[in-house]
Each structure stands twice: as structure tokens, then as C-alpha cells.
């Protein structure tokens, strides 16, 4: 397990606890009481740290190297029923955007999401979760397929942004994202969107238009990353913590600004510390939300979806 700077007190206590257990195993000394005290202190420290996280610390948690990614969620939710589909039928198969059919229980879903890598090799293979235009066009192809067969769509958002390279712009990056937003707003099937890590800029919006949008507790959703915001406003990345505060990018901010519909609580210590608990929370949210959406008339659902996004940013004095 890797630890972030603010998690170091937890690491130290875990090391103390491990040493305490080792002493008990290697000698006849009764260390039960000592270990119990360390365990209680560890739990109290974890609660104190994760209860008072700053926006920047939540950004750090969203990028934690041990945090589960899109394929981790899909495999946990669907098991062997997931069948990945490839290609946009125009350019190529974008490895940063994955999608396919899978079942949760007896219900089929079309799963779509950005996929990051676990190490240097797979990060390059997945282009660090930054999709090209063909990735967004693949996503739209799969959503249209889901619409045709009456299958609900679940999207997992986790990207530092759409790929900004020259070749991506030449192939119509902006148009591809705009087309997805337009088509998703009127797609004739339920759409559930979950931001599981980073939700940055148009790269997130390209698969982020949903009837219900949820954020994991330690994810973030914003028009720009704190580092890039800092570099624009202060000509330096040094003010990234200040930028994270100003951007209002946390799940709590999303609820207040009516950008998202709910927060999925993570286990104490974050999604990376208890993957199974996180998968279960996401599974329950998908099942309960689809239960609400499936009984709504499709015309009413589309009108509600479009009104929802038309009203974002509107306020009265």
C-alpha cells in the first residue's frame, strides 16, 4: 500500500501495530492490551484525518495509485458476464475508453468509462485515461446500440481530460465531445453516470450527461484541474491547493451547486483501502437508481434530463 503525505500518521500506526503482533508471536509476552490500544488509536486517527480533508487532499485521493479504476468496477459488478466491444468503425479502437455489455444480477447494462493504467507500461497503453476523438465516437456508438435494444447505460468517469494532442484536434476532438453531449441529452434509454476519480473538463462531459449523476466521496469534478488553474492564474503550480479550494470541485460542492444528484460514501480510508466495500456501494447505487428510472416514461425522462442541464448555472437574485 502506498501512502499520501497526509496519510503518514496512519502508516506509522500500522507499522507499530504490525511490530506489536510480531513481538507477541515471537515471545511469551502478552501484547493484547497494547495492540488493542494501538488499534483504537489507529481508528481514531483515520476518522480524524478523513473527516477533515481539504479539497486538494480529495484530489490527491482521487489519483491514489491503488484506487480502483473503471475495469475494476466492471469486473467486480459483472464478473464473467462482461463482454468488451471495440472500435468506432472509423479510425481505430481507443484503449483509453472502454465499453461493453455486462449484467448485474439479471439486468443487462452497457458500461462505458475511461480506463487508466496501473504501471508505466499500461498507462502508456491506456494513454493515461485521456481519450481521443475515436474514443468518444466509440462511446456514442455503444450508447446508440444500448438505445436500440433498450439497455440502460452506466458511465464511469475517471480522466484528467480528453487528449489535447495535435492529432486529436485534427480528427475533431471538440466536435466528438460536443456530439456526445448533444446525443446523450436525448438518448432514449436511462443513463447513470458515476464519477469514480477525476472528472476533468470536456473529457468528463463527453460521457457525463446522465439522468442521475453521482460522485464517489473522494472524487472531483471541474472544468479544469487545480494545477492548470494555478498555472493560468498564478503562473505557477505552487497555488494548486488554493485553486482546488476556489474551483468548488468536491462532491459536497457538486451537490450544493446542483451539478450532481448524490454522493456515494467511500469506506473509511478511501476507496483504495476497502475495494470490496466501494464496489458494493456502487452496485447498490446503480441497482436502486435504475429501479427508480425504469418506471419513468422515456419522453418524460428525456425532458427531465434536458431541463436538468439547461438549468445548471441559472440563479435568481
What does this protein structure show overall?
This protein has 317 residues and is of the alpha/beta class. Helices cover 49% and strands 15% of the residues. It has helices at 8-26, 32-51, 55-62, 70-78, 120-125, 133-148, 166-170, 173-185, 201-205, 226-233, 240-247, 251-256, 275-293, 298-310, and strands at 83-84, 97-104, 107-114, 153-159, 191-200, 212-216, 220-222, 262-264. Strands 1, 2, 3, 4, 5, 6, 7 and 8 form an eight-stranded mixed beta sheet that branches. Strand 2 (97-104) and strand 3 (107-114) form a beta hairpin. 38% of the residues are buried.
Proportion of beta-strand residues: 5-15%
Mean pLDDT: 94
How far the N terminus sits from the C terminus, by CA atoms, comes to 49 Å
Strand tally, please? 8
Biggest sheet descriptor = 8 strands, mixed
Q: How is this structure best summarized?
A:
This protein has helices spanning 8-26, 32-51, 55-62, 70-78, 120-125, 133-148, 166-170, 173-185, 201-205, 226-233, 240-247, 251-256, 275-293, 298-310, and strands at 83-84, 97-104, 107-114, 153-159, 191-200, 212-216, 220-222, 262-264. The chain has 317 residues and is of the alpha/beta class.
Fill in the keyword field for this structure:
8 strands, eight-stranded mixed sheet, alpha/beta, 317 residues
Helices and strands in order:
Elements: H1 8-26, H2 32-51, H3 55-62, H4 70-78, E1 83-84, E2 97-104, E3 107-114, H5 120-125, H6 133-148, E4 153-159, H7 166-170, H8 173-185, E5 191-200, H9 201-205, E6 212-216, E7 220-222, H10 226-233, H11 240-247, H12 251-256, E8 262-264, H13 275-293, H14 298-310
Amino acid at each position: 500500500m502506498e501512502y499520501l503525505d497526509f496519510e503518514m500518521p496512519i502508516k506509522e500506526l500500522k507499522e507499530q501495530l504490525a511490530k506489536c503482533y510480531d513481538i507477541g508471536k515471537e515471545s511469551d509476552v502478552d501484547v493484547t492490551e497494547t495492540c488493542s490500544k494501538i488499534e483504537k488509536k489507529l481508528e481514531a486517527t483515520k476518522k480524524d484525518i478523513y473527516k477533515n480533508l481539504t479539497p486538494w487532499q480529495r484530489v490527491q485521493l482521487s489519483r491514489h495509485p491503488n484506487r480502483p479504476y473503471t475495469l475494476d468496477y466492471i469486473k467486480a459488478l459483472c464478473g464473467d458476464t462482461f463482454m468488451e466491444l471495440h472500435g468506432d468503425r472509423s479510425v481505430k479502437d481507443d484503449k483509453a475508453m472502454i465499453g461493453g455489455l455486462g449484467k448485474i444480477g439479471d439486468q443487462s447494462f452497457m458500461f462505458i468509462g475511461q480506463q487508466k493504467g496501473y504501471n508505466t507500461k499500461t498507462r502508456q497503453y491506456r494513454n493515461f485515461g485521456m481519450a481521443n476523438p475515436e474514443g468518444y465516437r466509440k462511446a456514442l456508438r455503444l450508447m446508440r446500440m444500448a438505445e436500440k435494444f433498450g439497455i440502460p447505460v452506466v458511465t464511469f468517469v475517471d480522466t484528467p481530460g480528453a487528449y489535447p494532442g495535435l492529432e486529436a484536434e485534427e480528427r475533431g476532438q471538440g466536435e466528438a465531445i460536443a456530439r456526445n453531449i448533444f446525443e446523450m441529452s436525448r438518448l432514449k434509454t436511462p443513463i447513470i453516470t458515476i464519477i469514480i476519480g477525476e472528472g476533468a473538463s470536456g473529457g468528463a462531459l463527453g460521457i457525463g450527461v446522465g439522468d442521475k449523476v453521482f460522485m464517489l466521496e473522494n472524487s472531483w469534478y471541474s472544468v479544469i484541474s487545480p494545477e492548470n488553474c494555478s498555472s493560468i492564474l498564478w503562473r505557477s503550480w505552487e497555488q494548486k491547493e488554493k485553486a482546488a479550494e476556489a474551483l468548488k470541485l468536491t462532491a459536497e460542492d457538486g451537490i450544493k451547486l446542483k451539478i450532481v444528484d448524490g454522493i456515494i460514501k467511500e469506506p473509511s480510508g478511501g476507496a483504495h483501502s476497502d475495494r470490496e466495500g466501494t464496489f458494493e456501494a456502487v452496485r447498490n447505487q446503480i441497482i436502486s437508481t435504475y429501479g427508480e428510472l425504469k418506471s419513468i416514461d422515456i419522453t418524460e425522462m428525456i425532458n427531465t434530463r434536458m431541463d436538468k442541464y439547461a438549468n445548471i448555472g441559472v440563479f435568481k437574485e
